[in-house]
Amino acid sequence: MTKTLKRYFIKSFIVLALIHLAYFLYGFFTFKGIAKINIYTEFYRFKFYDDVSISHFFVSGLFLFFFLIFLVRNHSRENYKGSSLFKIAVCLLLISFLTFSFFISFSFGMNAKLKTELSENDFNKDKKLLNVLNPFLYGYTSYSSEKLFNYENILYPKPYPVIKQEDTIVPGEYAITETSYYSIDTIKALTSTFDKTTNKADSIFDILGFDKEELYKRVLSKTVIGDSTKIIFKSVQVHPEHDDDICIFIENKSLFSTVQGDSIDKQKYQAAVDRYKLLYNSKKDSLTYTFQQLDTLLRKYNIETSLIPKQLSQDVYHYKANRDEPLNGIRNTFDRKALTERFTTLDKLFYEPNYLHPNIIAIYFTVIVVVWAVLFLFYILFNKKKVQ
């Protein structure tokens, strides 16, 4: 490969780099912002009908047209063979790829603008706020759901969490059952120590006449890890229905949106702790202030809302103090579907950015290979013609 051909390829790469930069800036400055994001938003923009795709088609076509003309006219009088032809083929393949990937740079520009408007740290802070407040944000009909709101969902304070146990008192067609709740505790010990203690405990239970089989039934799981044994078991009986420090809003452990990289169980527990402290350990103004933060968040993401923080705080405290009253009037109206869609889409844009849509991957690389083959074959044939 001659020095002039090398310089030509280098100049071509520089031109392509400048075009990519232009598309990057195009994506950066045309990004509509987080307030306009919805489930149809994606970084992939080669749709064959929008301004990016149309301009891409013409810019790519014009570049390849002039590139080929100058390549054949000024750099095809040498009869290249072997390694030189291979190097030329590689350069032409890179040219083909870069010529058909401007829309990817456009997507990178959109991504960069997104990160300037909403950092990952701020996004995660918003998630944590919504996770803490999630039990206050359901539609009123959801509060009657035993699946969403029940004592087994309580993670804090001690002796929670609990496990439910139903015993049949009177069997038959009209059976009578009794529901009990037990706290869940954990014992960790060296396996050798545990075995010795278990044998001694069995002897003591036999002497005292205790039903050791009933005690063993309380074991939920037994795990041996290395030289240690971990046992999770039902401990003391708990009566959450008579617990004055329990209300419906802490009977839900669902997360609105998980924070990437953190344990889901830890996130649920931390949200439960913060929620409990907000309801039982903080002043009433603290809850109102937190709902003001929620209102700001909803407006930040352009979510339609009629939420009034002070009214919502009053409703929460009302149902906290009146546990037996059906919850059917909480004033927490906002567009829940839009908020869910917004965060689902932002999660994808942050952690699964779609720069090249799966639907066109095969077509995309087929086009690149075909264009590369045409350029290379045309160059070889024209080269031979010139030599002859």
Task: Tell me about this structure.
With 388 residues, the protein is of the alpha+beta class. Helix content is 55%, strand content 11%. The chain contains twelve helices and four strands, in the order H-H-H-H-H-E-E-H-H-E-E-H-H-H-H-H. Strands 1-2-4-3 form a four-stranded antiparallel beta sheet. Helix 1 runs parallel beside helix 3, helix 5 packs across helix 8 and helix 5 packs across helix 9. About 2% of the residues have low confidence.
Order of helices and strands: HHHHHEEHHEEHHHHH
Number of contiguous helices = 12
Number of extended strands: 4
Strand content: 5-15%
Tell me, rounded to a whole number, the average pLDDT. 84
Give the helices and strands, then pairings.
Blueprint: H1 3-30, H2 51-74, H3 83-99, H4 102-117, H5 120-133, E1 162-170, E2 176-190, H6 191-208, H7 212-217, E3 219-225, E4 228-238, H8 264-281, H9 284-300, H10 309-321, H11 336-351, H12 361-387
Antiparallel strand pairs: 1-2, 2-4, 3-4
Helix pairs in contact: 1-3, 1-4, 3-12, 5-8, 5-9, 9-10
